[in-house]
């Protein structure tokens, strides 16, 4: 619940290891570049977001709320809320 933002245009779910692969329509700004998030996987209580050459981990509790409206399972028409997410300090690169 709450992990896929409105802009997602496609993905493949690898049910054997719980990864979202070939994700399209989602990007993240890193410094001055916009990079496409291509894979999301769960590792314990963290979600790993990969842009291909690098990845970053975030606590899974950042994604208990819907990114569009800010509510959880009990959605009701309410204005969207802006909230900060916690980020782990590590950035992993495969280079």
Using the CA coordinates, give the radius of gyration: 14 Å
Coarse shape: globular
- Can you write the helix and strand succession as a string? EEEEEEEE
In DSSP terms (H or I, runs of 4 or more residues), the helix count works out at 0
Strand content: 35-45%
- Which class of secondary structure composition applies to the elements? mainly beta
* SS elements, strand count: 8
**pLDDT averaged residue by residue:** 76
Largest beta-sheet details: 6 strands, antiparallel
Question: In which range does the helix fraction lie?
Answer: under 10%
N/C terminus separation = 32 Å
Which regions have little confidence, pLDDT < 50, spanning 5+ residues? none
Strand order of the largest sheet: 1-2-5-6-7-8
